[in-house]
């Protein structure tokens, strides 16, 4: 059974959308990635940091879904990373209201001994130096290292970001970030430039417009499932990444053709994530529900033109 | 062989994009629809109006592609409809600089006798009363009536628009227009509301993000082919409609499954249209080129997840 190392925040989120607002609820990239990856028959471990204000029941929630949490350090008298944001009416843009780094400010991830030979490493959005330090700890080169990042690091740690991008196989990034990183408007040209920076595979996330996968001269485009309403987009990108990484770890097939399937799994899982606040929808998502929605995705995208 | 009636403008366009600008060149909805539909083995006729300032060579260009132009009325001492626009840097938005209706102001389309029993009617963007008058002339109910429209008619002739929408089978509309027409942000909900207004099938065009097809509770999403650059988006929507209508007329199969293929043909042809100014790319497009790009579309969208 393949191993997956997940590195990222485990956090408190407070979210406002046009549909309502929450108090501090469970959030964080590693949380969403872990919940998504738990749908695959793999060994997965989360590496993160929290304060002792973090409820044990939240950690149990991951353990119950077979995510190894021994790599989540708990700092005595420390406070857990807290993020608060407000979404605009279109749900595509948001303002950050509060960012309290707290224990995350001194996060030095330690990969559990058992996971140093993991086949897949999923580096959630963090300072690129922290992401790089995880790769340094691996006892052998992973079959696939996947990195998620955001515009914030392009603004304030570009050189470090470029250094870690050199070391990974797949980058997941949204359309605006791909344009910012390369100065190119065309996503086709932007993806090509990013490939020249290191990763052989580039995934560009376009929210309600789906996701694109690029490799050499090949492109795959998975649309997003049209939804009646997007209730809360928080965590959708991480859920996509968790589904993508989890599926690849399970199948242990890192070809472009199989990566298409991984994109579909990621999109499918993300389509659930946005239906409720925070992790609520993901906590009890069943494999029957996932299977049913994968069939919907097939109907949504597959056609049968006969070409000679 | 099925018959297709195409009603719409045949016009002069002057276009400015970040890549350059043109003098008055060949344009108009019926022109783009006709050039796209000419890729299918059908009988097609264009119904329109021009002034005697309109060059014979432009009409020949349609005839050479087997589009019957006897329904294009030429007004002595009249001037041809002229539109001029400037695209913004993102190529998704544009300003109209000039609209001279000229002969179009008194356009009373006359469907050629031979085409009054056509299987498919494609109503390009025009005043909804003009579109309705075409349906009145048909000697039998077409198997498929397709209507394209735009926000302008929602602003200034909404009642007339609603009346013609009641009479058609398929509407093609862009995402912002679908939202304006229904007051709904979710395209899934908007499409449902439009279906309740009459048409069983709703196609929502999202430009670089592709096109959605809705019918009852079914949805199909064809992404747009990612391109190195979009040179001039003028006519892309009409080219899509022409490919859609032409494919359905040729196959004479109006099922949802076959309509998926029609969407793919429309998207494929539209992906060529934007590569050059105006109709330039469409004038000499070969079936080999179309075939090759259809294969690209398959690779872009088709995957192979095994589901029990």
From TrEMBL, chains A, B:
InterPro entries attached to this UniProt entry: Carboh/pur_kinase_PfkB_CS, PfkB_dom, Ribokinase-like
Transmembrane segments: none
Organism: Algibacter mikhailovii
One GO location term (cellular component): cytosol
Superkingdom, taxonomy of origin: Bacteria
The keyword Kinase is assigned to this record: yes
SUPFAM superfamilies: Ribokinase-like
PANTHER family from the UniProt entry: RIBOKINASE, SUGAR KINASE
Residue ranges occupied by any Carbohydrate kinase PfkB domain in the UniProt entry: 2-280
Keyword check for Cell division: no
Record-given protein name: Sugar kinase
Keyword set, alphabetical order: Kinase, Transferase
Molecular-function GO terms, alphabetical: kinase activity
